[in-house]
């Protein structure tokens, strides 16, 4: 209940406000929040999917706005806007976003003070400094992932909220910075409190269930690949599952934030996801090798194929809560048999097929190991730590766009001498920074501008047609919450996310309920038009001057995959799963770009791009085998020769494949040949075979993106991945 002696009011312009109070802090805040959540959550009703998020956000918005009025903070509407931006789809998302938002706000406030101190009397230098800083923050936001990028976003656009307000009064910049930090901290704290108290969160059990379903999906795709099923359907499903595997990493990130017990398993789960992706990319190649009529003379090949099909079928049948101990045991036994078979094999082609089966069985075992550890709560400490792929080209493009948009808006303000021109930059700050966190900033800029165009007239209508008739805080909520409810709900749908997100932010920015509230229509219209001009500058920079080029981005990803294979031949080795996981991230991005420019070829990202991953895996394996103590010097030299040929991968892929085959044949014919030399020869033979089937993907000057999609029959005959 609100304190009766401090009723926050929706005050008129003639009423005066008392000095702002400082919010209190407590050293036991974390314990208190946890206890509140533990006591309240069992009593809360279960709301339909999506609506719980809506009502939690509106509750946090109401409390934050009320508290800002009660504490008489400057710009109380910023507390409510903070809630709208911070609120996420899960408790872990909110906590993570809140932490980085607070840090980013502090950094941005510090830079704001510095810019005003340096350039208060030099407006052009101030605009240039602002543009450079926002461009740098946008660049970092594009490089980082999840809500770590959000810290860079806040550090960027906090300048627009602090420094621009201090341009006319430089001596007041420190007070403005502290007021901004106070109101943002209030919004962050209230959001965390409400979500911790009312959101049960997904929990480790639900995440484990999601992982189990993905394991079953990969098992089903592996079974289809081993059975040599319909290639077109397999490619489409494989692209979808690849996207789900990538999304799982975000879920693991957020749940780890709110559940430290689950967090102990996070690295092991990420490795298991990487293993699942490895199975996904190699399934079709493994199926083709094991089903090859040329290898059917060796009884181990059909036997291994049947064994793998049985295990994959049982993986496909996994469901949350079902036992898998028998499957786990049988996979271990099958892997031991495969390792024994590869040790005794002397036929290169057969050995390559057995090695592929052995690798897949090892992946199955490690995936089931991770599931068992999670079920029994046995946290492990993996020696490997996976890396995140960042595309510096796209990040630099977004940073340049943001800097250009700010410079255009600032130049318009300075040249025109418009009194409300600062609002252009106030609008561009959050717009450019938030666009950097989207998958396609140029496309999102259109949606953002549409949301702005809806928010401005709606906010003016509410602010100047409805609010003047209201005289209390509850009536303020009656006027604003219905619009926010619709926007928050629509923001949960990918198609309306950009429009609805922009609407929430600028609807409240247009109304800007203050303490006291003042009504100046001319000033409000000036600010509204400035916001629209700022949005137009953003669209101009992101969509017109530096337009999207998914074809160029796809080519960058393709070249990056080819260069990664060449680096395997040239540079020191990294652990194969770390290397492969980096390439998997590129495959997912390449699949998205192909979906934008050639939807019928989306599956080629994993088919053709997956060939590069399989070649790199084989080369890493060959180099590791060459380091064994039992590898004779002549054998190590031949491995170096075969792997080194891949330096010319982009110039003459067919010649590289021929040289790798010759090196493999020479290795197998060595007088001192032993299992290590034969295994290395099999890896070179496998890399050469894959390259010979897909030379066009690697050849410099060949326009792989211009190829027409192959018919299903042709694709079935030559798809290596």
From TrEMBL:
<feature type="transmembrane region" description="Helical">
    <location>
        <begin position="99"/>
        <end position="118"/>
    </location>
</feature>
<feature type="transmembrane region" description="Helical">
    <location>
        <begin position="402"/>
        <end position="421"/>
    </location>
</feature>
<keyword id="KW-0472">Membrane</keyword>
<feature type="transmembrane region" description="Helical">
    <location>
        <begin position="173"/>
        <end position="196"/>
    </location>
</feature>
<keyword id="KW-1133">Transmembrane helix</keyword>
<feature type="compositionally biased region" description="Polar residues">
    <location>
        <begin position="12"/>
        <end position="26"/>
    </location>
</feature>
<protein>
    <submittedName>
        <fullName>FUSC family protein</fullName>
    </submittedName>
</protein>
<feature type="transmembrane region" description="Helical">
    <location>
        <begin position="150"/>
        <end position="167"/>
    </location>
</feature>
<feature type="region of interest" description="Disordered">
    <location>
        <begin position="1"/>
        <end position="26"/>
    </location>
</feature>
<dbReference type="InterPro" id="IPR006726">
    <property type="entry name" value="PHBA_efflux_AaeB/fusaric-R"/>
</dbReference>
<feature type="transmembrane region" description="Helical">
    <location>
        <begin position="473"/>
        <end position="490"/>
    </location>
</feature>
<feature type="transmembrane region" description="Helical">
    <location>
        <begin position="441"/>
        <end position="466"/>
    </location>
</feature>
<feature type="transmembrane region" description="Helical">
    <location>
        <begin position="124"/>
        <end position="143"/>
    </location>
</feature>
<dbReference type="Pfam" id="PF04632">
    <property type="entry name" value="FUSC"/>
</dbReference>
<feature type="transmembrane region" description="Helical">
    <location>
        <begin position="75"/>
        <end position="94"/>
    </location>
</feature>
<feature type="transmembrane region" description="Helical">
    <location>
        <begin position="46"/>
        <end position="69"/>
    </location>
</feature>
<keyword id="KW-0812">Transmembrane</keyword>
